[in-house]
Amino acid sequence: MAKQPMLKFVDVARDMPEKRDADVRNKDFDEIYAEYAQAKAEEQASRCSQCGVPYCQSHCPLHNNIPDWLRLTATGRLEEAYEISQATNTFPEICGRICPQDRLCEGNCVIEQSGHGTVTIGSVEKYITDTAWEKGWVKPGVPMQERGESVGIIGAGPGGLAAADMLRRAGLQVTVYDRYDRAGGLLTYGIPGFKLEKDVVMRRIDQLEQAGVRFVQNCNVGEDMTFDDIRAQHDAVIIATGVYKSRDLRGPGVGATGIARAIDYLTASNRAANFGDKVPEFESGELNAKGKKVVVIGGGDTAMDCVRTAVRQGASSVKLLYRRDRANMPGSQREVQNAEEEGVQFEWLTAPKGFKGDPVSAVVVERMRLGLPDATGRQSPELIEGSDYDEPADLVIKALGFEPEDLPTLWGQPELEVTRWGTVKAEFTSGRTAMPGVYAIGDIVRGASLVVWAIRDGRDCAEALLTDLNAEAAVAAE
């Protein structure tokens, strides 16, 4: 009788890949987790219970066939595991690194609910695709047959790249326009290297170029090129700009020197640390935490990226202010743990009231308590009167989230419909807007969200766009 390859969660304990020691990793921007060896990947994959209703799959925005590729990994059929993994996910090695698995697939694992510790889904996913790259199984998506239609995609982030990949594989001529000098969006310039090393992103960009996707960099739509010009050159256009307008603070002294936006700080760090670019604001110390008392304001994953970056730049102290408690923090709990190990101090139930000095020398902090739940069900923070204190700071980083830019005004397109939040109004799943041949996906539709949701939107939109073009071709042929 053949040995049962799965359901080993009772006998085999959960075991994450080895994490580099905090005193070592907090001095560089290399990824903090080691790679699984084959035997360890097979062992951890074999813990999957192969349950009849896979909650891991249903709670993954891409609905990845997780139980299938775990079983194939456990039985040594790794190339087949990769084929199953990439069938639903354009960038599985990226999602394996940066997805908040503790809130998605792993957080809904059945054996986790029974007290045995979740299957290490993200780490196995990363191992599968990294091995596929090493073995040469990952091939450019060169189409079997070319088509004459062309699509312009505005934005080279994960959503735009996912759409570009699928459309190019179908034979369409694809051009991606992006404001930065390198493609990848926040994958390239927003997420630090210790979570996502940049060669992982760049090899995907290179693969898309090999497949025939054309990139137009340093192109700010509305300045360097009009939206009408792009529409005129293509049969369809996908808006995938993301959201880059930072939410701001209010209060005395908010305009002081030394108060920076998270996106500017992270971009400068990624350019200098990961690409070796000369960044004047970094070299001058304006966006460099070295030797400084750093205070980061916010509670999401961007705030986590900022505090952990500041530690690596050699800050004398790093503190995070968040107006709720740890249990109500929107960022990944795994990231909070990593930051604490690396020396970050968390000041829960605190909020900035104002700032002293110019350049900034202190944040005026007020203490909070949690009151009654708001409309979302979360407890609302309430001010504790008379609890103010000064927190010394040489560099303050605002990581309060992002909002959409005013695209109708910036692009001179008043007919581009937006919601009351400023996001582009688009049809659910397809991305179709009210403008003929114009689609919108990702954060510019959803608001600031996860990379995995942008990938899902890009893939769904590509499928809908192909359906529309095929329908138009069929009508024209009649």
Task: Characterize the structure shown.
The chain has helices at 22-25, 38-45, 55-58, 66-74, 78-88, 92-98, 110-113, 121-135, 158-169, 186-189, 198-211, 227-233, 262-275, 280-283, 301-312, 333-341, 407-410, 443-446, 451-477, and strands at 150-154, 173-177, 214-216, 236-239, 245-246, 259-261, 293-297, 317-322, 345-348, 350-356, 362-373, 379-383, 389-392, 395-398, 402-403, 438-440. With 478 residues, the protein is α/β, with parallel strands linked by helices. It folds into three domains: 22-135, Orthogonal Bundle (Fumarate Reductase Iron-sulfur Protein, Chain B, domain 2), CATH 1.10.1060; 150-243 and 404-477, FAD/NAD(P)-binding domain; 250-402, FAD/NAD(P)-binding domain, CATH 3.50.50.60. α13 crosses α15. The protein is globular, with a radius of gyration of 23 Å. The N and C termini lie far apart (61 Å). The mean pLDDT is 95.
Assigned CATH architecture of the largest domain: 3-Layer(bba) Sandwich
Quickly give the structural class: alpha/beta
Compute the gyration radius: what is it? 23 Å
What is the overall number of helices?
19
Shape: globular
- The count of DSSP E runs of length 2 or more, i.e. the number of strands, is 16
Largest sheet: 5 strands, parallel
Organism: Tropicibacter oceani
Domain FAD/NAD(P)-binding: 151-458
Keywords: 4Fe-4S, Iron, Iron-sulfur, Metal-binding, Oxidoreductase
Protein name: NAD(P)-dependent oxidoreductase
